[in-house]
Design brief:
The protein has 305 residues and is mainly alpha-helical. 69% of the residues lie in helices and 0% in strands. The radius of gyration is 21 Å and the shape is elongated. The N and C termini lie far apart (51 Å).
Length: 305
């Protein structure tokens, strides 16, 4: 019945995790056993989330010496990448829980294993040997595919992937190598490449598109950008604000703040320099302004409660 019986999957995960806390014993298995186990669970399976949590526990158990399991870490990342690509290629197979589980796994590995993730700048060996055909598109490099998927999750309506993607980018922007503009490494390079799209998505979402409950999560990403990448991000934020409320045909949409209000919001945001309370309040106020006057009362009522 494996890998479709949730009871078997749970028991296997418990056995594997028992070995992670021991140095010797019958449950201390080679690292590749965990990798093969996780890869054997279909992404849409009910036990996929449990398997990904086990993968996170596996990486945590090796956090003191991450270089020793570099290949195993890369294999797990590629496994997540492949599930992301499958959902992107076949939108009807998109599963918010699978997306959330994969992004959460990547977020958890970032502090100790980010150099592995950001080094995967090519296709997996298996994919590079297979030429696309029969309508199958060419997949992007591993890192590019993962970053693009998290950016898509940031602008989606499902709350779980959106919030996990927000935390992913908060963690990326907090990495020491991402914060140094003079650092020529892969993390800084990836942040520079993604910053224009990231700024556009955040402004569009906070500019009235997202749900009220998502503002806090998105504003966390915005405050990291405004504090750690203010110089780089300023023109991208200004451009996103200028385009706010205009659809692809160039027509205005809904309640759009004036140019002066947009400039005031950007100036206040940059002045806040990442202050949590101030940035959050600015984002909420701007969201209400973009949604229209009818939301002012709702905001006042929620505060009164």
């Amino acid at each position: 019945d494996f890998p479709y019986d949730i009871t078997i999957i749970e028991a296997a995960c418990n056995i594997l995790k028992a070995g992670y806390t021991e140095k010797v014993g019958p449950y201390v298995l080679p690292p590749i056993v965990t990798v093969n186990f996780v890869k054997s669970i279909p992404p849409a399976n009910a036990g996929a989330d449990m398997a990904m949590r086990t993968a996170s526990a596996f990486l945590a158990s090796h956090a003191a010496h991450p270089q020793r399991i570099r290949d195993e870490t890369a294999a797990l990342i590629i496994h997540v990448y492949e599930s992301f690509c499958s959902m992107h290629e076949r939108p009807e197979s998109y599963d918010p829980e699978v997306a959330n589980s994969g992004i959460d796994f990547l977020t958890r590995l970032l502090p100790k294993y980010h150099l592995v993730l950001f080094s995967l700048t090519s296709l997996p060996p298996e994919a590079s040997q297979n030429k696309p055909g029969n309508g199958v598109p060419q997949r992007p490099a591993v890192l590019e595919g993962i970053l693009n998927f998290t950016l898509l999750a940031l602008q989606a309506h499902e709350p779980l992937p959106l919030r996990s993607a927000s935390q992913f980018w908060v963690t990326v922007l907090t990495l020491p190598s991402a914060a140094d503009p003079n650092e020529p490494g892969p993390v800084q390079s990836a942040v520079r490449d993604c910053l224009p799209t990231l700024c556009r998505i955040l402004i569009t979402q906070i500019g009235g598109k997202c749900a009220r409950s998502d503002i806090e999560h998105l504003s966390e990403v915005l405050r990291k950008i405004s504090f750690k990448h203010q110089g780089l991000a300023r023109p991208y934020l200004a451009d996103a604000l200028a385009r706010l409320g205009i659809d692809e045909t160039g027509q205005s949409q809904g309640h759009t703040p004036s140019s002066e209000e947009k400039e005031r919001f950007l100036a206040s945001l940059l002045t806040a320099r990442g202050a949590k309370a101030q940035t959050g309040q600015l984002a909420r106020s701007f969201w209400i302004k973009c949604r229209g006057a009818s939301f002012d009362y709702t905001e006042w009522a929620s505060r009164a409660e």
